[in-house]
Design a protein that fits this description.
The chain is α/β, with parallel strands linked by helices. Helices cover 31% and strands 16% of the residues. It folds into 2 domains: 294 residues, FAD/NAD(P)-binding domain (3-Layer(bba) Sandwich), CATH 3.50.50.60; 221 residues, no CATH class. The chain is built from 16 helices and 20 strands. The radius of gyration is 23 Å and the shape is globular. The strands form 5 sheets. Strands 1, 2, 3, 4, 5, 6, 17 and 18 form an 8-stranded mixed sheet that branches. Bound molecules: NADP nicotinamide-adenine-dinucleotide phosphate (NAP). NADP nicotinamide-adenine-dinucleotide phosphate binds next to helix 5.
Length: 530
């Protein structure tokens, strides 16, 4: 084997690529991770915008594969800020000596499969090649930035920052006039922090969003001790819930409770803070009337938090709650009570243009010194299709997915032997706590590669029948209910020209894990080996 030939080539050194490297090494495989960034961390390496922090409690948003690691690491806050998560990724890389097998500052541009040798060749933008039997895309679900299509974007004379590609150095907005385009999670986290520094902030809102307070605080040491005293059990309990998150998920129906009971339930969840708000009743995302009760509760909270009633109404979302991913905020709505923070409604009348000096909307030029683009990601598929992947008989993944993705279990595709995706479309991924989901996928992939080695198999491929059946099931999971009724990035609706197909698996983490286990128990049912 020449220097650049490996058993497994992995693209991405985020939490998925890092753990995969560790597992593969333990199994005795030669693995090489190729990473576009200059260090580990993936999404937490790139998303350095002010106020970036996790929206799942840090005691859960962490690896569990190593007991010593999860015991020794101490989070400082309930929801840790991005720098601390990046520090954690660095700590894991040091602890398991991962960096020596990671090629940084290298962006993979293409990959092709040779059927005769059953090998993949990856080509990087700098021309370097890596050859491996297995090829794993560990590129994350939210990693390819989505730039808005607004006339004149390149003409702006001041600095333009995308939240998902934030510079490494501190950006000082003191005394500056700043425009923020977008009001999703990234904007909702960054606006209050930018407003603390800037002289003026102009927020361009196309769709108002639901946000539940994080009620972030220094991590309660008693709670930390309690969790750590039974971490494995705590993680196992989390795995039994639909999103794989420890918490209270009630099955009851909202409309079977009295108005007072509902109010008390929502109030208590609002006080607790965070994403568990949607766990109040089992039917919130299935029944419009039930959903209305939760949505109106949040709208009333917004009305109570925002002093100007007209601004408050503009900030009140009109769509269902939980159709788009819920945001988790710190002082977002109350930031609009500050005199220098302005909300510009661009729902009915889109932004007309970016000019050299600002943003033109509502027939007016809003003059600013800096632009913050918080328009999200080409989610689920963007990071996969930006690499020109060619499988058996030159099958192109880009072309295959032009009308929307399909996959078997979010892990593999027919005609692409020995290619695995970690948390690909068709996996529960973004509906779950990503860290345990990543670990589950990585374990499944690593075990599969070891299984093949034991039996001298050179190639594995999903059958077209298994892929079609799984994809039908993925779609069936959202036929009933409201989840797919909102224009969200789950559907690809946020990217101009992208096919509208519901991409993540909404059947719950326990059902997904069970299916993966059944597939293995049946000798990798739905896969063909060569
Ligand atoms: P996003 O949720 O897709 O939000 C993008 C925002 O940009 C939306 O408000 C969108 O409006 C707006 N937009 C897009 N094009 C526009 C245009 N031409 N004119 C005006 N507005 C435009 O992206 P994100 O905030 O980066 O979040 C994406 C996901 O990343 C989240 O849902 C979450 O899963 C994850 N995330 C998590 C955290 C966290 O709390 N840990 C933080 C950030 C991100 P429309 O709604 O009208 O399209």
């Amino acid at each position: 084997m020449s220097k650049q030939e490996f058993d497994v080539a992995v693209v991405g050194a985020g939490f998925a690529g890092m753990y995969l490297l560790h597992r593969l090494r333990k199994l005795g495989f030669r693995a090489r991770v190729i990473e576009a960034g200059s260090d580990v961390g993936g999404t937490w390496y790139w998303n350095r915008y002010p106020g970036a922090r996790v929206d799942i409690e840090s005691m859960q948003y962490s690896y569990q594969f190593d007991e010593e690691l999860q015991q020794e690491w101490q989070w400082s806050e309930r929801y840790s800020p991005q720098p601390e998560i990046l520090q954690y990724a660095g700590h894991v890389a040091d602890r398991f000596d991962l960096r020596r097998d990671i090629q940084f500052d290298t962006r993979v541009a293409a990959a092709s499969y040779d059927e005769k040798s059953a090998l993949w060749t990856l080509k990087a933008e700098d021309g370097t090649k890596t050859v491996a039997r297995f090829f794993v895309m560990a590129t994350g679900c939210l990693s390819k930035p989505n730039w808005p299509q607004i006339d004149g974007l390149d003409s702006f004379k001041g600095p333009t920052y995308h939240t998902a590609q934030w510079p490494h150095e501190k950006i000082d907005f003191t005394g500056k006039r700043v425009a923020v385009i977008g009001t999703g999670s990234s904007a909702i986290q960054s606006i209050p922090v930018i407003a603390d520094e800037a002289a003026e902030v102009f927020v361009f809102q196309r769709t108002a969003n639901y946000a539940i307070p994080a009620n972030n605080a220094p991590l309660d040491q008693k709670y930390e001790h309690e969790v750590k005293s039974r971490y494995a059990e705590f993680r196992a309990e989390a795995k039994q819930t639909p999103p794989g998150i420890h918490g209270r998920f009630r099955q009851g129906k909202a409309l079977e409770a009295t108005a007072e009971e509902r109010q008390a339930e929502y109030e208590q969840r609002w006080e607790t803070g965070g994403l568990s708000f949607m766990g109040a009743y089992g039917d919130l995302i299935f029944d419009q009337e039930a959903n209305d009760t939760a949505a109106e509760f949040v709208r009333n909270k917004i009305r109570g938090l925002v002093e100007d009633p007209d601004i408050a109404e503009l900030l009140c979302p009109k769509n269902i709650i939980g159709g788009k991913r819920l945001c988790v905020d710190t002082n977002y709505f109350s930031t609009y009570n500050r005199d220098h923070v302005h909300l510009i409604d661009v729902e009915a009348q889109p932004i007309e243009a970016i000019t050299p000096t600002g943003v033109r909307a509502q027939g007016k030029n809003f003059e600013v010194d800096a632009l913050v683009i918080a328009t999200g990601f080409d989610a689920m598929t963007g990071a996969l299709t930006q690499v020109d992947i060619k499988g058996r008989n030159d099958a192109s993944l880009q072309k295959r997915w032009a009308d929307g993705p399909t996959s078997y279990l979010g892990l593999a595709m027919a005609d692409f032997p020995n290619l695995f995706t970690v948390t690909g479309p068709g996996s529960p991924s973004v509906f779950t706590n990503m860290l345990p989901t990543i670990e589950q996928h990585v374990d499944w992939i690593a075990d599969c590669i070891a299984y093949m080695k034991d039996r001298n198999y050179s190639a594995i491929e999903a059958t077209p029948e298994a892929e079609a059946a799984w994809w039908e099931h993925v779609q069936d999971c959202v036929v009933e209910g409201l989840k797919a009724t909102t224009n969200s990035w789950y559907l690809g609706a946020n990217v101009a020209g992208k096919a509208r197909v519901f991409m993540p698996y909404y059947g719950g983490f326990p059902n997904y894990c069970r299916k993966c286990e059944e597939v293995v128990a049946a000798g990798y049912e739905g896969f063909a080996f060569a």
